[in-house]
Amino acid sequence: MTILQALLSFSVVAMLLTILPGIDSSLVLRQALVRGRGTAIATGIGICLGSFVWGVAAAVGAAALLAASEFAYRMVTWLGAAYMIVLGGTLLWKAIFSKRHGAEAQAASADALPSTVPASPWRAGLVGLASNLANPKVGVFYVATIPQFIPHGASPVLMGLALAAVHAILTVVWFGILIVLATYASRWLRRPKTIRAIDGVTGTVLVGFGAKLIASPTA
């Protein structure tokens, strides 16, 4: 796997997981609808900064693990691939068998949002940052995926930074779309059929990537 191939492959996985309805997207949508675009943009920037911090931490951890033990690094890679398969399988199950999943997931995301929406862009950015850093799923995502997309011979730290930057850029693009089309996107994302479709596509891609990584762990 070349660096370009790794970046492109990671972009597919990261983009699908970015558009998956969750706390981050719901928070940005709420800010856009309640406080306006400026506050929503500040919130989105805070979320992206939080994701980048998680990415840097995962990259440094991967580099330290590789330096300590190649076998341990391989084990993390395999566990990460297994995690992707389990996560993908769970999403596929929900997409196929749970008709109420969309409404329930959206309601859960809404309930998890802060009850007070700050008017200050600075405070909105801090809310976005804190919300992302406090979400362990973001850390699990980076720990599970970054080692999978580091080509043989590439610097884990530099590659991890590049992957985190790619994810941040994709997140900015997606949040921009949500903010510009806030009202329409909010209604569209709340439709159970839409959420099931996103879950199905994302689950299929994750299972495929995970299976490929297990079959070719040294790629």
Offer a concise description of the structure.
By secondary structure, the protein is an all-alpha fold. Helix content is 83%, strand content 0%.
Order of H and E elements: HHHHHHHHHH
Helix content: over 70%
| Mass-distribution shape | globular
| Amino-to-carboxy terminus distance | 6 Å
Count of domains: 1
| Average of pLDDT | 76
**What is the number of E strands?**
0
Derived structural class: mainly alpha
Task: Count helical runs.
Answer: 10
Q: Major beta sheet, specifics? A: none
- Low-confidence parts lasting 5 or more residues at pLDDT below 50? 101-118
Oligomer: single chain
What does this structure look like?
It is a single chain. This protein has 219 residues and is mainly alpha-helical. The chain has one domain. 83% of the residues lie in helices and 0% in strands. The chain contains ten helices and no strands. It starts with a helix and ends with a helix. About 8% of the residues have low confidence.
